[in-house]
TrEMBL record:
It is found in: Nucleus. GO terms for molecular function: zinc ion binding. It comes from Salix udensis. Residues 27-51 are annotated as: Disordered. SMART domains: PHD (SM00249). One of its GO terms (biological process) is root meristem specification. Pfam families: PHD_Oberon (PF07227). InterPro entries: OBE1-like_PHD, OBERON, Oberon-like_PHD, Znf_PHD. The keyword Metal-binding applies. This is Zinc finger PHD-type domain-containing protein. Keywords: Metal-binding, Nucleus, Zinc, Zinc-finger.
């Protein structure tokens, strides 16, 4: 039985992309600081930031008329050093204490906190940013007090920052992506998929396998069984799916982890050995030659030049260690086509050649 490529991977993952593309371009939810009431003792000018040109002109005319030489004074609202909080404060201090402090901070300061973490997650700051993020993540991961019960009292921005630190995903800080408070908490405590384009409740499909039951945030609908990461690659040999339990694995991870290797025929369990994929979730095997054939027959005609070369390289690496005649022939054919394409062979010709090769094998 070949790995059923055409069902889970070619249908399920594109649906995630459609969901992601259709997320509303909504404004970032305003923080609870909007609900702070102005003190009756505060003057109106204490709410100003920068004066408008009209206000400045009116003030100047008033001063000229009164022949007052005193300079104009505008009160600008600032955050004192005592009131400020840092990302380390959010990562390490008690939830309700930080939440109360954040209620008194202006939105622009909270945005600066989120932007600072976004820059850190982008990795453009080099080793210093990486080290600081690891410190933040260690602070968060070693706290036993961050539970559903305590996080429900968190400030909205505080919760977004905690989730971004915990998952390492900056999308939770993006202004156009708005998840409910409940969803953010569920992501944090591994009850909801951290892939924003998936967002399934965990364990997905109520799976009871050891990996899904570990409550580590793994989602069998979109994540690799080995590295626990997700991406949006579809119609590709980059992912290999188990045709028995429908869990997914990056091909590179499977090769590196020894999950792709020679073994007895998956069809009969005996006879000549062939290249097999062993699923870590269920420990059962699936043959790879038929799977690769299905992928190319369904998808190769739509691949552009770079994609075709990349897929041929995947297949070459899968069958590099093959000891059966058909697997060795496929390996050499992929190597040959890659070299010819580097020399200028048209992708349409290369596609036709590899499809004819598969037809001749069966």
């Amino acid at each position: 039985m070949s790995v059923a490529f055409s069902l889970p991977l070619s249908i399920r993952l594109p649906s995630f992309l459609q969901i992601f593309a259709c997320l509303p371009d909504a404004q970032e939810p305003r923080s609870n600081s909007d609900n702070i009431r102005e003190s009756p003792t505060e003057s109106a000018s204490s709410q100003e930031t920068w004066p408008t040109a009209a206000a400045m002109m009116a003030k100047k005319m008033e001063n000229d008329k009164a022949d007052n030489d005193c300079p104009e004074q505008f009160i600008i609202r600032r955050v004192s050093g005592v009131d400020k909080i840092s990302l380390r404060d959010i990562a390490g201090e008690q939830v309700d204490i930080i939440s109360e402090k954040m209620l008194c901070l202006p939105d622009d300061f909270l945005d600066e906190l989120k932007n600072g973490l976004r820059v850190m997650l982008e990795g453009s700051g080099g080793s210093q940013h990486r080290e600081e993020f690891l410190i933040l993540q260690k602070l968060v991961n070693t706290r036993p007090d961050l539970t559903e019960k305590t996080l429900i009292r968190a400030h909205r921005v505080q919760l977004e920052i905690l989730v971004a630190i915990n998952t390492g995903i900056q999308a939770f800080l993006h202004p156009s992506i708005s998840l409910s408070q409940t969803s953010l908490i569920e992501v944090f405590v591994f009850k909801r998929c951290r892939n924003i384009a998936c967002q399934n409740q965990l364990p997905a499909d109520d799976c009871t396998c050891e990996i899904c039951a570990s409550k580590s945030g793994f989602c069998n609908l979109c994540m690799c069984v080995i590295c626990n990461k997700f991406d949006f690659e579809v119609n590709t040999c980059r992912w290999v799916g188990c045709d028995l339990c429908s869990h997914w694995t990056h091909t590179d991870c499977a090769i590196r982890d020894g999950q792709i290797c020679m073994g007895p025929s998956a069809k009969s369990g005996a006879g000549p050995t062939e290249m097999l994929f062993r699923c870590r979730a269920c420990n059962r095997t699936s043959e790879l030659l038929g799977w690769v054939k299905d992928v190319f027959q369904h998808c190769a005609p739509a691949w552009e030049r770079e994609a075709l070369m990349r897929e041929l390289d995947f297949v070459s690496r899968i069958f590099r260690g093959s000891e059966d005649p058909r697997g060795r022939k496929l390996f050499w054919k992929c190597e040959e086509l890659i070299e010819k394409m580097k020399g200028g062979l048209e992708e349409s010709t290369a596609c036709r050649v590899i499809l004819m090769f598969f037809q001749g094998m069966y």
